[in-house]
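dude i think i finally got it to work??
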Amino acid sequence: MKTRAITEGALLAAITVITALISNYIPFMSVLIFFLPVPCVILYQRHGLAVAAVSSGAAILILLLFMDPISVVSIGLFSSFPGLVLGWCYKKKKDGFFRLCAGYVIYLCVFILAILLFQLVSGVSFMEDYINTLNEASSGVMQVYQSSGVLSTDQIASLQTEVDSLMTSFKLMLPACFLLIPFFMSWFTIVLCDYTLRKLRISFYPLTPLYEWQLPRSFKLFSVVLIIGTAVLMYGFPDVSETYSVTIMAVLSVIFGLMGFSFIFWLTRLKLAGKGKWLRIMYVILCLLIPVLFEVVLFIGMLDVYMGLRRFFIKS
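look at this
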């Protein structure tokens, strides 16, 4: 290895270690986990696979001095594998959509591998542990209210019904979360990689901005068939299809929600000549705080997908 490659590898390994320690020990800084693959991507882009792999391995060995092995393995999985795969994509000049898909697949595989390792080490089924955790949480909440004596017997019964319903929703949403979280992790990681490489003046094909995202026409027919099929299963086989239908509807809601945000961002850029950045940020925050607003975004996304709202504004 060249001296420059060794120096940069050591520096970025140190950055990875510091970032991992901060994300692990400071709760509100846990979002830094999205940054962990970035040093590996930079090294792969500048010096190739060998330097990136050695630097990632060195960072993992250093982390063993400060953290327990289980946490180090988890961090290694979520930093090294996505970093090496995305680094290869950047090195080969793959476009943003290809990188997004590759990142999704590798994050999904990492999630599966992490669950398998958890079950191997603990000897406990992941699903059983997840359900037991939910049950313990709900029991703890009910015990607090029952011991406080603030609520009447009828109110306690009503609260128990609501808590049971919420726990059931959490259980049904697990498959949808398993499918959707890797997508958002891939997206956020690629955005960070694009930003960092742009600052370092390294050439690459950037990810298409959200305001330019549009679904292909074939998705219209596919989504209609999927919705009709889900509705038939819901009414024809309610016991069998509940988890499936919740998963499909959650995925479609996220897709239409993204298309709604895409249209709103596109419209603000069109009408405000690119000066509506803070307006877009505020609207996203409001949608996170006020669920009703997200329903509006969802409806706008469906209209844009099926009717093509943008053509009306372009003509005007």
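The mean pLDDT is 82.
im so relieved honestly
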